[in-house]
UniProtKB/TrEMBL annotation:
Matches recorded under InterPro entries: Bact_response_regulator, CheY-like_superfamily, Sig_transdc_resp-reg_receiver
Domain Response regulatory: 5-123
GO biological process: phosphorelay signal transduction system
Keyword check for Phosphoprotein: yes
Protein name: Response regulator
SMART domains assigned: REC
Organism encoding this protein: Pseudomonas lini
Residues with PTM 4-aspartylphosphate: D56
UniProt cross-references to PANTHER family, sorted A to Z: PROTEIN PILG, STRESS RESPONSE REGULATOR PROTEIN 1
Lineage: Bacteria, Pseudomonadati, Pseudomonadota, Gammaproteobacteria, Pseudomonadales
Gene3D superfamilies: 3.40.50.2300
Keywords linked to the UniProt accession: Phosphoprotein, Two-component regulatory system
Source superkingdom: Bacteria
Amino acid sequence: MSKISVLVVDDAAFIRDLVKKCLRNYFPGIRTEDAVNGKKAQAMLAKEAFDLVLCDWEMPEMSGLELLTWCREQDNLKTMPFVMVTSRGDKENVVQAIQAGVSGYVSKPFTNEQLLTKVKQALNKVGKLDALMSGAPTKMNSAFGNDSLSALTGGKAAVVAPAPAAAPSRGLLNTPPVKAPVAASAPASGRGQGQLRLPSGTQQCVIKALSIKEALLVVKRTDTLPQVLDSAVLDLEQGENAEIARLNGYLHAIVAYEPKPDSDWLQLTFRFVDQDAQKLDYISRLIARGTAQKHFVPGA
């Protein structure tokens, strides 16, 4: 029986490697190839056949949505399973992808189980699941969903109870303070606030420092501790129109923020993995327009 072949498309090498490793570990006979953007993927799809495409949305040169639209216009790719793996989890984005002919939707950050479930759902619809499952572990033989909106959005990570919001700041770009409920013991903010999405849930965070490669974040400690190398998405809100930038990355380091083992706060080094020029420009503008770094004072 021939191998199932999957094309992984993402501008971030870390995400591509994460997806390929997950697939290879669970499906020993699978063949994986990758592309850094939609344009490269388009060239590969024109030359060889793939059984499934796992594709990011925001990429340079050609976006995932543009690649999906092109695929559905090709006679030989109209029915090929195409799953979006993206930080764009808003309802309007999901609807837009469904209208373009997407087969499934996985929101970043994702767990291995969520990704594998969507892969099996997509291949089951075209009768190729048996070829994929030969030799695979049996612990994930779960029921398959349908084509409804709820099925496509079911890949979101379970959200744990949110941590107390960080203290009001001068805003990400020196805007007036945000009036929101604040924990009395939250650290004073440095360069703004954001929301960190992890496989284990979502937390509010305070941005202590920002560079073109990484952000230094402070989060409230919860019962579920984040893990080094966890993939994550940092959501930052900017401007009067409340534009949200979704920055993909991973946790490079985690330390106690306070010099004690029962520290209520954790300091996370969040490394960016996006190679999208628009996102890099966005980070550059934040750095240029932000104020000088301030020091955090626990309990302030």
